[in-house]
Design a protein that fits this description.
heterodimer; A: 253 residues; alpha/beta; four-stranded antiparallel β-sheet; B: 328 residues; mainly alpha; two-stranded antiparallel ribbon; 15 helices; 4 strands; 74% helix
Amino acid sequence: MSMLEVESLKRSFGGLVAVRNVSFAVNEGDFLGLIGPNGAGKTTLFNVISGVLRPSAGTVRFLDRDISGQPANRTVRQGLSRTFQAATIYPEATVIENVARGTLASGLTGLCGGFFSNGWRLAVEEKALHVLDLFGLTRRAGLKARELSYGEQRRLGVAIALASEPRLLMLDEPVAGLNPEEAAELASVLRRVKAERGVTMIMVEHHMRTVMGLCNRVVVLDHGTLIAQGTPAEIVSNPIVIEAYLGKETVHA
Amino acid sequence: MISVATKPMPYVGIAAAVGVAALLPWFAPNQFYVHLATIGCINLMLVLGLAIIARAGQLSMGHGGFALVGGYVSALLSMKGWPPLLTLFIAGLVAAVIAAGLGWIILRLRGVYFVLVAFAFSQIAVLLALDMSSVTGGANGLVGVPPISIFGYVLRAKPQFYPFALVCALTTLLLTWLLYRSPLGTMMAATAENQRLTESSGIDTHRVQVIAFTIGSGIAGFAGALSTHYLRFISPDSYTFWESVSYLTMLVVGGRDGVLGPVVGVLVLTPLPELLRSTEGLQHIIYGAVLVLCLMFVPNGLASLVQTWRSRQRVARTSAALVAEEVP
């Protein structure tokens, strides 16, 4: 049984078809890489799956439930969480408060609870501290998020997404804009998260070393169409993929 | 832990402020000060209502409209013989129900569109009050609204009404503070700061904003009713667009974060026009200049001065802790 099944998914903006008839599946425990040249439709595909955009056609099934076109907040509560390309944080809140806000939807207090007691906050902050520990941000807990370095802010963004305790985490270019050390650090954090929490992950990424190092399966998009899928080793030697990235080989040396 | 440290200092300050407010009728030189304090209490409730809406990231330019609706509902019901103590709450409830319905539709509108529709609502409320003269008395308004009576004790004169207004305002203040600390309050703050991120943390931000709009507007309805029973009069001019603007001004000058901002804004701006009265024609100019200076030099409100001081202390503490950690 696949965890996430994308079937004949299509999304167009006016006349532009950004995602065309894409189908693939993600199994529990996978770390799926989603790659493709700029403008291939990777982020649009992400947005449609996570509920930020509605699909023009096709279905998305998560844990055997049809989630196509359902509001993002409900999808998250069902266990599918995502990050955004830019550092998406609450800049004026403290680091621990950032992560604590991520845990709110999975808490039991609901909208009306926790009015007269402070117990919920202690519980939420304890949960948040665990996540911060996993991301190596414990010592930054009391700082405002905007006071962190860019690399730390990116890590915090992933931490917030993980705080909602997802079963499937979708990462939109998590290492973009990071220097090699920061990228390696984030990759090792992701590996640890996967090992410790058993979270299934999908990652859009340009940084090939990160994709090849982390993912067990790779899906390649080009012009909104799925052109290849397989293990990282299969993908790098696939002539169609090489052509999509580098153009047709016309000159023979 | 990381939450606000529980030091005795703030509690002493709060107790002293409440004590001064409660004892005001005894040392006020004349009744006018008591009147001003009563108006301040009513303003505080209205500004807190607005602050709750702003906490969730929306700006209501129709706040006066909900106060007007509350005022008329309570006036009409009590003139039919209903006890004013009950109609106050009915007024709040009616305003809240209208806000919930309106909010469900218009809070899908972002930014300036929400502001425009809320503004339009308050204008419609004024026009309805003018045109339905058989019910509302038209431009003359309703005169002789019954005073509030609590177990037969009638709050007719200023010194009698003021304690009741103060209790209402302090209760609102306490409830707002509790709301801000609750999960719902946290969700509201998160929505205001980054709606997309809050949504993708599994929180229905539309619902959070509708709830905030409902609570805030309900408070406005209650406060409008309270003021109507105090002045014993309401007309379409009681809550016009300019009242909505003045509550917004109090909120901005005082500060939008926390409950201290509205208190400071009301304390500064309720008496200011009266203090400036002796300057004859200059009062509007001075009032405007105070606003401009506040916006230029303390854009986050006067209460933010306290927060800046606090966060300086926090940074000092954090770096001291880091140094202590690194230097054995």
